[in-house]
Design goal:
The chain is α/β, with parallel strands linked by helices. The protein is built from 17 helices and 16 strands.
Length: 486
């Protein structure tokens, strides 16, 4: 494709090339006037689209929703499912299709799907991959542009999109003394993080959600048969999928609850109605997920905070379900007595010559137990609440007063059009937030369908700013090149 003059195109810099950032880039490239854009995606990994969630090579890690519900294109729900069939991946991975016909491919396969759909735009030059880590973001003195400083060199931009999503898990304070211990795994998704754990090793997994389930599945695939104890404050294991998928059930949006308690009562009543109608509970939560933005918008800030503080853990284990292949591993290990989930709080830890020792107090008991393990694995999940401190690019923006944390500890405060809110309480016109870091404003924004829809919305908001640059006719676009890119 013939390159357009760089100075005559709207320069968009996307920080983060996991699914959120790649989806924004792809949706921007789908715009009819994509030739008026220069899109740079800043991502240290060698490929775009995978991120932490979809770039790992571990075969035991599978997508946790049926492939038929995963798509880069919100208006085409079958987009990924068709690619999955056409690519031959299902033939190479016979375990991907579950008994009910739903497909749960390996996560890296979804990452490849995203990368392949972005590849033509990378090849044409419409999208550019800046392979490096964004270390600092500064606003030009006149306020008209931005400079994104990266380990791969500076990137000048008219618009910046913050799409860095998954941070490393935060280490609980009670485990801080183990941070450098040989038997401690701070991030189970790091390359070969579990490779050193022996077949008969006793393992403590801190956390009992999706990451915990992934860890058990990987250990099992590697031949581990020792005892695994999964510990979390509530002791709640992520739930599984129904044998037969149903349609979303219930109505939470017609008269949305104004309080967290009111919403809880409505959910309980709807679950009772579902049982009476022989409908599975998953269908109720599917409806909650679909109507989540309406429910979140109806709650006052105080009630949102209460919802996050008191009910989020229950929502997470029902909303973020595990693939049935992974659930089968957990069920088998539990039946064999080599896997147990307990509700307890961490008290302290220390490293001894024969391995890490962890003290914890089970829920409802006064006695504190101290147990030695061969390995302790941290699966507490991404530290979204610490994003503005841990991510250097976000930290620089926060220090400059251009972004601030939302009131619920979920990420970055944004306006309803996804623009970042600065320290002064005003939206920054050319600074957008895409993906889960914006969920303090939108509520349910962790699942892939919601992230894809949000990416599409952010792309459309950016398109509104194209009026600030010359039209395609003024620039003189090569029509053949445009057609070839499509």
């Amino acid at each position: 494709m013939n390159a357009l003059p760089q100075s005559r195109r709207l320069r968009v810099a996307i920080i983060g090339g996991g699914f959120s950032g790649a989806a924004v880039a792809w949706h921007l490239a789908q715009l009819p006037w994509f030739e008026r854009l220069s899109i740079s995606v800043i991502e240290p990994r060698p490929a775009l689209g995978g991120g932490l969630a979809y770039s790992g090579a571990e075969p035991a890690h599978r997508v946790n929703v049926p492939a038929i519900r995963m798509s880069m294109a919100p208006d085409d729900p079958q987009h990924f499912a068709r690619w999955l069939t056409d690519s031959g991946e299902l033939e190479r991975d016979t375990d991907a299709v579950w008994k009910n016909g739903d497909a749960y491919p390996r996560r890296r396969v979804f990452g490849r799907y995203v990368a392949e759909h972005l590849a033509p735009w990378l090849g044409s030059g419409v999208v550019r991959h800046v392979q490096g880590l964004a270390t600092r973001v500064t606003r030009d003195a006149d306020g008209a542009g931005w400079s994104v400083h990266t380990s791969g060199g500076p990137v000048a931009a008219d618009i910046v999109v913050l799409a860095a999503t998954h941070l490393p898990p935060g280490i609980p304070a009670a485990l801080a003394s183990l941070a450098e211990a040989p038997g401690f795994v701070a991030d189970p998704y790091a390359a070969s993080a579990l490779a050193h754990i022996g077949r008969e090793a006793s393992v403590l997994i801190v956390g009992s959600g999706l990451s915990s389930a992934d860890t058990v599945a990987e250990l099992d695939r590697r031949g581990h048969r020792g005892r695994i104890l999964a510990l979390s404050r509530r002791g709640l294991r992520s739930r599984g999928h129904p044998d037969v998928r149903g349609e979303p059930f219930g109505d939470f949006a017609s008269s949305p609850a104004a309080t967290a308690l009111g919403l809880l009562k409505t959910i309980r009543a709807t679950l009772a109605a579902a049982r009476a109608a022989n409908v599975n509970w998953q269908s109720v939560f599917d409806q909650l997920r679909l109507q989540g933005p309406v429910l979140w918008a109806a709650l006052a800030p105080r009630e949102r905070a209460r919802l996050v503080r008191q009910l989020r853990v229950f929502w997470d284990v029902h909303r973020f379900r595990i693939a049935p292949q992974v659930a089968a591993v957990l069920d088998r290990r539990q039946a064999a007595g080599t896997y147990e989930t307990v509700a307890a709080r961490l008290v302290a830890s220390n490293h001894e010559d024969d391995g890490p020792a962890v003290s914890f107090q089970r829920r409802g008991r006064t006695r504190i137990e101290t147990v030695r393990f061969d390995a302790v694995i941290n699966t507490t999940g991404p530290a979204h609440g610490q994003a503005l401190r841990l991510n250097p690019a976000l930290r620089s923006l926060a220090e400059a007063g251009l972004i601030r944390a939302d009131a619920y500890g979920l990420g970055i405060e944004t306006s309803l059009d996804s623009r970042a809110i600065g320290r002064d309480g005003k939206a920054v016109a050319t600074l957008f937030v895409a993906g889960p870091l914006a969920r303090g404003t939108f509520g349910e924004l962790m699942g892939l369908p919601e992230v894809a829809r949000h990416a599409q919305t952010v792309a459309r908001e950016i398109a509104r700013l194209l009026d600030t640059v010359p039209s395609a006719e003024t620039i003189g676009v090569d029509a053949d090149s445009v057609a070839a890119a499509h």
